[in-house]
């Protein structure tokens, strides 16, 4: 019996928000509201996500690794994971609890570098956290706005749901957010505050 330490379902919508020519294949992005879907098939595991995270001229990859293992015999012990990058000198991201899923959002803020959304399972599942990050001029990973909680009813978020969470419409960046005060978790389109260089 094998032990699965980390699952990274790394999603790349063909650099969905990059300028034309940044990627070999452009995949149309479905901006329909993302919904949680039960998965019957095994999760697709990938540990590298290509992108231009360091500079527009350098193609590198993000990768997930276990940074702090859970302490044995702790009831609420959690593994902590982070993202590293294949470009030398590019700062790693902060630690995240439990499994991580990432999407390459393309260049959201016009700095020429791809931005990343990280989805991570909160303690004991049924809710996910989502944060979108950019790498600033001081080589620090910063969030666009605040992270959000995504109720998942203990189902996996589908690849299409994660890819559709953050999107550009008429040169404005939005994300779908659930209303936690609504029993049905109705989604609304919310403008994401983007830090421009």
In words, what does this structure look like?
It is a single chain. The chain has 197 residues and is mostly beta strands. It contains one helix and 13 strands; from the N terminus they run E-E-E-E-E-E-E-E-E-E-H-E-E-E. The chain has one helix spanning 159-165, and strands spanning 8-12, 48-55, 58-68, 80-85, 96-97, 100-106, 115-121, 127-135, 141-143, 148-151, 166-169, 172-178, 187-191. The strands form three sheets. Strands 1, 6, 7, 8, 9 and 10 form a six-stranded mixed β-sheet that branches. The longest helix is centred in the C-terminal third of the chain and has 7 residues, at 159-165. It is flat, with a radius of gyration of 16 Å. It starts with 7 loop residues before the first strand and ends in a 6-residue tail after the last strand. Residues 1-15 and 18-46 have low confidence and may be disordered.
């Amino acid at each position: 019996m094998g032990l699965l330490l980390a699952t990274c379902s790394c999603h790349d919508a063909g650099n969905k928000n990059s300028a034309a020519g940044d990627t070999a294949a452009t995949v149309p992005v479905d901006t329909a509201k993302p919904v949680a879907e039960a998965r019957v098939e095994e999760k697709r595991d990938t540990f590298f996500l290509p992108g231009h995270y360091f500079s527009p001229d350098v193609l590198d990859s993000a990768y997930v690794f276990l940074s702090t293992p859970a302490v044995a015999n702790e009831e609420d012990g959690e593994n902590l994971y982070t993202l590293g990058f294949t470009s030398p000198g590019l700062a790693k991201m902060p630690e995240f609890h439990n499994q991580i899923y990432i999407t390459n959002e393309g260049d959201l803020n016009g700095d020429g570098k791809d931005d990343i959304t990280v989805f991570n399972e909160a303690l004991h599942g049924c809710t996910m956290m989502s944060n979108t990050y950019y790498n600033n001029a001081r080589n620090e990973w910063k969030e666009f706005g605040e992270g959000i909680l995504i109720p998942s009813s203990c189902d996996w978020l589908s690849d299409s749901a994660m890819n559709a969470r953050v999107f550009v419409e008429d040169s404005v960046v939005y994300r779908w957010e659930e209303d936690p005060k609504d029993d049905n978790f109705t989604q609304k389109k919310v403008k994401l505050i983007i830090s421009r260089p």
